[in-house]
């Protein structure tokens, strides 16, 4: 019996353990932190051996195969030990893909991947397909393969998950865009991070498809220098493309092998240029898998977006409060500010991942009337924007940040939480940060 060791007892770890046990592995789960009760119960009910708050090397280094959760860095000493011994270390996405014959749509990128994954799933489900949504969003892919395997999956995939693949091959891959993010995990070298994202296409053949943002110079330059095997289907809001999706006179045009769809943009449920691109990417997938045009159009019109992503919370005294807590990097905040069309009080800050805020300068000058910093170290934000914005203040709790924003905002303004940073300095995660914002707004 082969021994499968799972490092990390969260969603992807426990899902892998359940699938591994089903497929006849001797499974052991090890988590350096505490395992949540709901995951413990799954392990106990499935009769899977586990430990928490430690990694017992004698129980780990005898593995035949190791699945490492995405949160554990590749350079962790234990991972180095395993690799030195020649033990294969893979990601959940790789492991689960070995046990399903489903058609896989893999979606990655620095921003927009959650919305694009949800939208793709929404259209395909409305089109009557037996499709699951998993990966970096919702249930683990492995758990779905074990319990309720589908004909097709829309998978949101992070660069960390792609770092641990060997044979994984989506039939349709999407790269929404690539901007500097998580550089602390990539030796602070942007090209390492780009290479990691492009692993999504590394096993594709000419029978597969890569859908990508043709307006993104990083993606274009990489493809020029590192051609892929798959068929390229670009999308663009700046130029016409021969095969793929583009914008013409307020309509989305999708052309694939002379199959032509045209859809007006004025009824799209989601606002902003970036969501136009997400809609193009998802609609291109739908066109490839032969979903009816009417279904695609209706799905784009009735789609409810991801929570914590430009989510309108409440309007109080004619001031709109918007929760964009999912903006954990500068580029996501760029999109948020770009979509604002009223004077904005901007709540920003958190755990900085090596951010360069200069790209936001034109938008801040044009749209931001006040900045409320919410983080333990706001030095870089104050240094960048201190001379541009008249009002800039530091806070260390969400309640204070929201109260001060209310005092500064006038009728017709917006208060935008779009932190451009990770949340771990003051919050459990970005969801916790967004929930606290919504609660604080409701308490005003």
Automatic annotation (TrEMBL):
Keywords: ATP-binding, Cell cycle, Cell division, Cell shape, Cell wall biogenesis/degradation, Cytoplasm, Ligase, Nucleotide-binding, Peptidoglycan synthesis. Residues 107-286 form the Mur ligase central domain. It is found in: Cytoplasm. Pfam families: Mur_ligase_C (PF02875), Mur_ligase_M (PF08245), MurD_N (PF21377). Pathway: Cell wall biogenesis; peptidoglycan biosynthesis. It catalyses: UDP-N-acetyl-alpha-D-muramoyl-L-alanine + D-glutamate + ATP = UDP-N-acetyl-alpha-D-muramoyl-L-alanyl-D-glutamate + ADP + phosphate + H(+). One of its GO terms (molecular function) is UDP-N-acetylmuramoylalanine-D-glutamate ligase activity. Residues 308-421 form the Mur ligase C-terminal domain. Its EC number is 6.3.2.9. ATP binds at residues 109-115. PANTHER family: UDP-N-ACETYLMURAMOYLALANINE--D-GLUTAMATE LIGASE. Cell wall formation. Catalyzes the addition of glutamate to the nucleotide precursor UDP-N-acetylmuramoyl-L-alanine (UMA). HAMAP family: MurD. Belongs to the MurCDEF family. This is UDP-N-acetylmuramoylalanine--D-glutamate ligase. The gene is murD.
């Amino acid at each position: 019996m082969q021994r499968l060791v799972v490092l990390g007892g969260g969603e992807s770890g426990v899902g892998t353990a359940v699938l591994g046990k089903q497929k006849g592995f001797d499974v052991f789960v090890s988590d350096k932190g505490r395992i949540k009760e709901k995951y413990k119960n799954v392990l106990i009910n499935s009769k899977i051996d586990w430990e928490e708050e430690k990694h017992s090397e004698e129980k780990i280094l005898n593995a035949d195969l190791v699945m490492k959760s995405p949160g554990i860095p590749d350079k962790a000493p234990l991972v180095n030990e395993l690799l030195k011994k020649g033990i294969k270390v893979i990601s959940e996405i790789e492991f689960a893909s070995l046990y399903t014959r489903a058609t896989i749509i893999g979606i990655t990128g620095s921003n927009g991947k959650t919305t694009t994954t949800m939208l793709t799933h929404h259209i395909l489900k409305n089109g009557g397909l037996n499709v699951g949504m998993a990966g970096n969003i919702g249930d683990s892919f492995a758990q779905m393969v074990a319990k309720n395997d589908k004909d097709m999956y829309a998978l949101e995939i992070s660069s960390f998950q792609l770092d641990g693949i060997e044979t994984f091959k989506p039939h349709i891959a999407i790269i929404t865009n690539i901007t500097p993010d998580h550089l602390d995990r990539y030796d602070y070298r942007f090209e390492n991070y780009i290479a990691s994202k492009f692993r999504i296409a590394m096993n594709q053949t000419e029978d597969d498809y890569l859908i990508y943002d043709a307006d993104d110079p990083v993606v274009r330059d990489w493809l020029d220098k590192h051609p892929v095997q798959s068929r390229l289907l670009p999308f663009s809001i700046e130029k016409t493309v021969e095969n793929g999706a583009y914008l013409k006179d307020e309509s989305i045009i999708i052309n694939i092998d002379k199959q032509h769809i045209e859809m007006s943009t004025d009824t799209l449920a989601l606002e902003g240029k970036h969501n136009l691109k997400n809609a193009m990417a998802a609609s291109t997938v739908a066109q490839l898998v032969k979903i009816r045009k009417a279904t695609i159009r209706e799905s784009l019109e009735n789609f409810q977006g991801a929570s914590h992503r430009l989510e309108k919370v409440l309007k109080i005294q004619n001031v709109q409060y918007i929760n964009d807590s999912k903006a954990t990097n500068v580029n996501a905040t760029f999109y948020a500010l770009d979509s604002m069309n009223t004077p904005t009080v901007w709540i920003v800050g958190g755990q900085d991942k090596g951010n360069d805020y200069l790209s936001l300068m034109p938008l801040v000058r044009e749209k931001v009337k006040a900045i409320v910093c919410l983080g333990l170290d706001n030095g870089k934000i104050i240094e960048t924007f201190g001379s541009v914005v008249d009002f800039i203040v530091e806070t260390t709790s969400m309640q204070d940040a929201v109260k001060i924003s209310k005092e500064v905002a006038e009728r017709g303004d917006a208060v935008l939480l779009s932190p451009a940073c990770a949340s771990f300095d003051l919050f459990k995660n970005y969801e916790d940060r967004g929930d606290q914002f919504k609660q604080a707004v409701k308490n005003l």
